[in-house]
TrEMBL record:
Family, similarity comment: Belongs to the ligand-gated ion channel (TC 1.A.9) family.
GO CC annotation, single: membrane
Domain Neurotransmitter-gated ion-channel ligand-binding: 50-231
Name of the protein in its database record: Neurotransmitter-gated ion-channel ligand binding domain protein
Organism for this UniProt entry: Ancylostoma caninum
Cell compartments where the protein resides: Membrane
Pfam families: Neur_chan_LBD (PF02931)
Keyword Plastid: no
CDD domains: LGIC_ECD_GABAAR (cd18990)
Membrane topology (UniProt): Multi-pass membrane protein
Coiled coil spans: none
Signal peptide (residue range): 1-16
Amino acid sequence: MKLCVLALLWITLCDSIVIDNDYNVAMDDEVTPQTTATKRKDRRNCTRDTAIIDKLLNGTGYNKFRIPNDDGVRVSVEFWIQAITSINEITNDFEMDIYINEMWLDPALNFANMNPCKHNLSLSHQVLDRLWTPNSCFINSKFAEIHDSPFKNVFLLLYPNGTVWVNYRVNVKGPCALSLELFPLDIQECFLIYESFNYNNQEVQMRWAENSANPVVTMTPIVLPDFDLIKVSPTLVNAVGFLAWMW
């Protein structure tokens, strides 16, 4: 049997996919971390991570419930498939482990003028709980959770210009369109739809990472006992409607 996995991303009508031959995780200019200066910092006078976070979150009136930009936030998304662990013909679903990368710009978290000791801040998931996030999810999943072995598998990186990069390691189970009429020559399609759960498409615009050769990649060859993986197809779904005042 053959298997085709689809990954769908819902965004606003005005956005489109741009694919570049240069494969890297960096996003477009709006959310790409600023280039750091080559001049060596004076560490005797630089500001440490804890002081920066304290000032950003406690000393500036930062509000995690406020959308970073009144005109809407564009969130760049990239998936790294670690493994497809099971496909069940009885329940019509599949299960996989996946790394979800999201990147967006939050101007309220800009710390470039604080003379930081580091070019970027690597922070724990407890800090992420205090930041605004797009609250995105697989809206058609049967089950999804962040791995917590031995701790919550969340990577958070904050850049001086306020760019936020979050990486989640997630176990997710999604639906499949299984049809066995042509068995064993059938092709099965499994798919997941990823979007912001809390915000409409005027407030949060989801899109695939534009500077990546492929926004959905398999980290290692996928080997399944009863299926051959044909392809993984990232698809962009342009959703029209749901202006900010419509709910």
